[in-house]
Every structure is written in C-alpha cells, then in structure tokens.
Amino acid sequence: MLWVFGDSFSIPTDTIEKINSERASCNQPPIFPIKENWIDIVSKKLTDTKVHQNFSLRGCSNEFIYQQLRIQMPNIAPGDYVIVVLTAKSRRWLLKDWPQLANWAKFDFKGVESDNLVDKKALGAVENYARYLYHDEPSFATYDAFVHALCYWASELYSNNIKLLPLPGFDEFPGYNSTLNHICEKEFADVESIKLFYQETSDRRFNHLSGNNHQILADKIVQFYDNNVIVDLANGFETDIYTVNNIKNYLTS
What we know:
The protein is of the alpha/beta class. It has a domain at 2-92 and 134-176 and 210-231: Rossmann fold. It has ten helices and four strands.
C-alpha cells in the first residue's frame, strides 16, 4: 500500500470533480484534463493499483501534515510505501476546524465563500495574527523540527521494511537539490509568463504540474524505492512550457 501525506502538490485525482465544481462557482475555468497524476503512476508501478491512502489537503500546514502522519503511523504495515510532501514553512494551522486555511499570507479574508462558512470573528483573529503576531522564527523552528522528525521516522520505519520518502514542496530539505515548487515555476519561461498565467486564472495544473512532468517525477520516485536513487528535483523536467506568446491558447483550451 502507498500512503501519501501533504498539500496541493499531492492531492489525489478523485478530488478533480470537487475542485472543478468549486472553480465553476467562482467563474473559473476547469483544471487541465488529466487521467493520472504522479501519485497514481507511482502507486500503479509499486503496488499494481492506483488505489492508495491519501491524506493530503490543499492549503494545509506542516503541523496538519505531521498530525495526519502521526495518526496513521500505527496503520502502516511492513512492505508499505510512504510519501510525505512538506509544505511552505510559513503556513500555520490557526483555525482548528479549517486546516485548509493555513496559507494565511495569501488568504482572501473578504472572500464570499469564507465569509459564509467561517466565523467572521475567527477570520478577524487570523488577520490580527498576520498583522501583529507572525514572525519567521517559530515557522523556521517548526519546519526544522518536522524535518528531523521525518528523518527519525524514516529510520524507524526502514527497520520495519517500510520506506518513507520526504519531498520538499517549497523549502530546503537535507539531501535535496531543489523543491517541487522549483519544477512548478520552471514550467514558465520567465516572470512575465508567470504573472500572465495567474492573472488570467488561478493555477489550472493539477498538483501544479503539467502532464509530462507528472510522469517524470513519478519515474524518479519509483527509482528511489526500487534502487535507492536520490530524487533529483532540479534536473530532467520539462521547462519553459508556458510563454507569454502561448499562454492565451492554454487558458482558452
């Protein structure tokens, strides 16, 4: 069995319909069509089925990811595979029942959906946290502690024939030369193409990756599990897919 924990970089494809429904309610176009994401491919190659256990959540924090892994740890059996995608260190699990609102720095506190679903006083408290309470040191300390916890767990699980693979989403991790966000951003030719892409619509790429890069990432991960090859996140991926000249065609397709 494959177990996956993380943020939007690792959410499963069975959430596509829900995501597209949310996008339609905001007058946004659907995500680009995709049959399999990198997790489906990895799961099929390692276990002969796309069926896997996935506890990833869009917009969550490392605290939430850690908690999900801690809860599920007793259920992971010898011979299983574990992938943990770390998210941005600045995200915080501030609202207990809304772990998906951890990306407070980019959160639209005046959004219609949030105003309808989340208590306005609670949102005001998050705004005050952003304005008065946040500073980098606790976020750095929490991230560093999570990194060390994963290294410890990887060692403990390996002794029980379980291989844990951490993947850095945005920030550094020992032994890695880059991050998943690097792959995401390198799909754009330059800063102008990035601005244009997000200006027209929010990211339409599932897991923030285009089709071929799902396959490339999956192949690298399988090599880690089969042959202990370190996952190179800096090289071998398709780049400059989106340019100022071709973005309009992608966004209207």
